[in-house]
Amino acid sequence: MADTFINNPSFFKLDATLKKLRNYWQKMFDSRQMDITVDQWLLVENLYKHKKTTHNELARNTSKDITTISRIIELLVKKGLVKREADIYDRRKVYLQLTPDGTEKYKQVKPLVHEMRKTGWKSLTEADYAELTRILDTIYGNIPTKI
Amino acid sequence: MADTFINNPSFFKLDATLKKLRNYWQKMFDSRQMDITVDQWLLVENLYKHKKTTHNELARNTSKDITTISRIIELLVKKGLVKREADIYDRRKVYLQLTPDGTEKYKQVKPLVHEMRKTGWKSLTEADYAELTRILDTIYGNIPTKI
DNA sequence: GTAAAATAGTTGCTATAACAACTGTTGCTA
DNA sequence: TAGCAACAGTTGTTATAGCAACTATTTTAC
Known about the structure:
Two copies of one chain form a homodimer. Chain A is mainly α. Chain A has helices at 4-7, 10-31, 38-50, 55-62, 66-78, 100-121, 126-142, and strands at residues 53-54, 82-86, 94-98.
């Protein structure tokens, strides 16, 4: 029948792939003494691109919960990679940006990440990338935001 | 240049899609008072299919760490959905299987899961499923197991 | 102009993820 | 057969994920 894909565990496959990727990244980070976790890296990368942003924006950009952002940022601040700065006009807001050490960390880790991306995409094409993007975007769009 | 896909955050897209799926599933479970988490469900589903298995097998089948299995099983045992049974011949081994309540839970949740899978795949085809599988399997295979 | 609602962020709690270290058991090997 | 490696599982610790409840501001509504 036509429902093979409904009955198959794509959730599981997504999860397994992501987990293997995450573990690979983390082990590479550890073996090169990068002293950073995968999710911490994702925030550093985002802060490098956006220079100055808030917890909320960061949450939207990284698809993470704002409480998770809050806690990861806390760790990055402790490591001296990120600094917080209060908004003068809206005292609820806190701007986040990389410190010089944070920028340094970004430049140190970036080439390794580039290599790992190449490794992951080995023997796949630009068309494959487009396909994956299309399918994942479709699934993403199919899921109701409110139930 | 030809490296669009290398420079693009497919990791992020995988993560975002999976997270949205997981949240959707969890919210549906909660709204129907299924009293189960997504990962607990994955183990229950697996135990239903394999009837009698060990922590190790379950870890392999679900792509989860054995420590994670150990803790999720602990919760399922507390909920009365799973029971442990010692192997007579190898006293290190513990067999796991669903209790009658566990089987009941499976039958209760299964239709909802089927519906949610249909929702996720809406407007996608069998060919899309094959493509996604191929691409994810390739990425999975590309990642070194040992670094 | 004040009360209510919305916004920004933090903290408490529970669950999943993974590494390290541990107990206990079994199998292997000199 | 004694010693040690391998195996099965658990426990401790740190990190991410997300909900609920909270503080503190700002905006909106009347």
